[in-house]
Amino acid sequence: MAQQQDLDVLDTEELRERALELARRKWDLRFFWKLLGLIPAAEAMAGNQEASKASVAQLSGFVYEALSAENDPGVQEALRPVYIEYLKEHADDV
């Protein structure tokens, strides 16, 4: 497993890229769904209150917005712990 201190020194963009690349290689849809579920809360933490109020009725729009929002540096920063956790859990696969 990757050591916490090894991952903590990486910037958020590097963590994001590593986690997403690993999930792509592993075809880890569960990780991508987890991100989609967390993005509204991350958006709220980043100050994007309106985006965090997405409803089930707006799912298609939400998915599109969620994928775009994940590129927002504030949202990425809020998701940083998720990237670290994922990379630690799958350190043997890196």
Tell me what the structure shows.
The structure is a single chain. The chain has helices at residues 4-8, 12-26, 29-45, 59-69, 73-89. It is globular and about 40 Å long. The N and C termini lie close together (9 Å). Helix content is 69%, strand content 0%. It is mainly alpha-helical and 94 residues long. It has five helices and no strands.
SSE order = HHHHH
What amount of the residues lies in strands? Answer: under 5%
Q: Largest sheet, described in full?
A: none
How many E-type strands? 0
Helix content: 55-70%
Indicate the low-confidence ranges by residue numbers.
none
Shape: globular
Q: How far from one another are the termini?
A: 9 Å
Compute the CA-based radius of gyration: 13 Å
Number of helical regions: 5
Structural class designation: mainly alpha
Mean pLDDT: 80
Question: Which descriptors apply to this entry?
Answer:
94 residues
Sum this structure up briefly.
The chain is mainly α and 94 residues long. It contains 5 helices and no strands.
Fold topology:
Layout: H1 4-8, H2 12-26, H3 29-45, H4 59-69, H5 73-89
